[in-house]
Every structure is written in C-alpha cells, then in structure tokens.
Design goal:
about 325 residues, mainly beta, eight-stranded antiparallel beta barrel, five-stranded antiparallel β-sheet, 4 helices, globular, signal
C-alpha cells in the first residue's frame, strides 16, 4: 500500500495555495452588490490553478507566483468567472468585478467570459488559456465595493499540458473515507437517499500539468512563466447551501508527486468527509484513505496561518 508520510510543515508555496483556496473557495458566493447568497446550480465548470516561478528563476519556497482561473456555465447565457494572479515582485491582481463574477457567456464553442478564454486543443491533454483586459491591483476583496481601485491592463497566453492521468472523484476515490464519514452520522433512510442523490447529480475530475507562456502587465513589461498546476472539471448540480465549510490543500513536490486533500462539512450528509488523492512519480494514482486533518484546526477562526501540519495515507 503506498503511504504518504506525515507532512510536518506545509512548504511556503503550498501554504500560499492553501491560503488562497481558504480565502477564495468558500461556500458563500456574491450574487450582486451588497448581496450574498449561495449558488445552487452550475452546468459546467472548469478551474485552472497554476503555481510556480518565472521561467528565468528556479522554483523556490520564497517565490509566490500563481494564476487561478475559472469559468462555470450557468443558465440564461451567463457564466461565473474567477481570475486571480500574483507575480512575485509585482503584486496581486483580480478581475474588477470580483466578487460579483456573473458575466455573459461569450461562446458556445469554447469557455469564454469577462475577457478570459479556455480552449482545449487535445482532450485531457492540452488547453490554451488567454486573457486580455483590465485587472485590479491590490489585496483580494471578499465583499463588494463601489471603489474600482487601481485598474491595470493585463494580457497573457498560457498553454497547459497534462503530466498525470485523470483522477475521477466518483470512481477513483478510496471507499474507506466515505465509510468512515458515514459511520459518524445517525443512519436514516433519508440520509442514504440524500447521499445517493448527491452522487447522481454532481461529477468531478482533476489532473495535473504544466503551463508555459507569457504575461504582460501594464508598465511592468513582459514576463515568461512556467507553472505547475491543476485542471479541475465539474459538471452537474451542486447545492452550495448544503456546504457549511471546506478546506482544500494542493501540493506538488520536486520529484513529481502531486496531492490533493479536501476536508468538507456537509451537514445534510457528512459532517466530516476527507477526500483526495496522490499521483506518484511513476504515474500511479491512489485515493486518500485516511487523514488527521480537522476543520476545527484549519482557520476555524478565519485567520490563515503561514504553516499547517497534516498527515494522510493513500491506497
């Protein structure tokens, strides 16, 4: 059984990703200026998260360059769009509409909205990601504000190519994690009906790869990028109101090992479910079997620490 040893401290680059996801991927979503409601449905979603260093520099824990891009198709010709990026030595940027990210779905052939486009060149193997527009420079906002802030023209073009197989959460996840989570709940007919309904409504898969390209930001000029990253694709129906809280941790190591650990609280079905996977350097994949990660110890007070320690096994 492949076993992932205890991780005493999350590396700085991983801590940054964990912090970004803790801050940005919560269950609440903005629906309009000053209004916060859960989004109950999505048709299709595509998320690309890349982290690493500028091509001219070796990837190191002190480097905090990353790109997070997401498009999710909604009914009535709309899509939900996220775009966050950080260039080491330059600063942090987000789309000026954030956190109210409903934009017009600009194409039925490719993923496109708000100046961001995602287009697959080879299914499950190669994607092209482009953006051309204005981004707001400064700290990421969690609430709507009428102040635009400093808007900067940004243009980038990245090509993402896979380095791992696909992990299908509905098929490849380790059943032990679900058994352990369900064993902690009061068993009723209604509980199992809700679990069955969830599994039939929502589907998700992920794979890791590398993005290479160029970004141009205002007066800062052009910078070449080479970033390790993850592509996540979801489709079906997701009821965000059923999610109380979750934390997602992603890691990519120098030997090629990649890992995903999510701890989630869904009161209607499982109040403490741990899911995820490990991709090994030889190409093998394994679902996470056990972890000591606890939501109570991961930013429960809303304060994101610089380091977290978690242990898990995968089989």
């Amino acid at each position: 059984m492949p076993v992932v040893p205890a991780v005493p401290a999350v590396p700085a680059v991983l801590a940054l990703v964990a912090a970004a996801l803790l801050a940005l991927l919560g269950a609440g979503r903005a629906a309009g200026p000053g209004a916060w409601v859960p989004l109950k449905r999505w048709a299709l979603g595509c998320l690309l998260l890349c982290l690493g260093a500028c091509r001219q520099r070796a990837a190191a824990e002190s480097n905090r360059t990353f790109v997070i891009a997401r498009l999710a198709r909604r009914p009535a010709g709309l899509c939900e769009m996220w775009l966050f990026l950080r260039l080491d030595g330059i600063g942090e940027f987000e789309h000026p509409q954030h956190p109210n990210m409903m934009v017009r779905d600009e194409s039925k052939e490719i993923w496109s909205g708000g100046g961001l486009t995602m287009e697959y060149l080879k299914p499950q193997r190669c994607w092209k990601i482009n953006f051309d527009g204005l981004l707001r420079k400064g700290s990421y906002r969690q609430q709507w504000s009428e102040e635009e802030g400093e808007l900067v023209p940004v243009k980038f073009s990245l090509q993402w190519e896979n380095s791992t197989d696909v992990f299908n959460f509905n098929v490849d996840s380790n059943p032990s994690t679900f058994a352990r989570a369900l064993a902690q709940e009061p068993w009723t007919i209604q509980l199992f009906q809700r679990v069955k309904k969830q599994r039939k409504q929502h589907f998700r898969h992920e794979q890791w790869g590398q993005s290479v390209g160029e970004i141009e930001i205002g007066n800062y000029g052009k910078t070449e990028l080479s970033l390790k990253g993850i592509r996540s694709h979801s489709y079906g129906v997701r009821n965000w109101a059923e999610i109380s809280r979750y934390v997602m941790i992603l890691a990519h190591f120098e030997d090629g090992t990649a890992a995903h650990l999510t701890v989630i609280n869904m009161p209607a079905t499982t109040t403490h479910l741990t899911v995820g996977y490990v991709f090994f350097p030889d190409g093998r994949k394994a679902g996470i079997e056990w972890s000591n990660a606890s939501l109570a110890e991961l930013a429960e007070d809303g304060v994101i620490q610089d380091q977290y320690g978690v242990s898990f096994t995968a089989a």
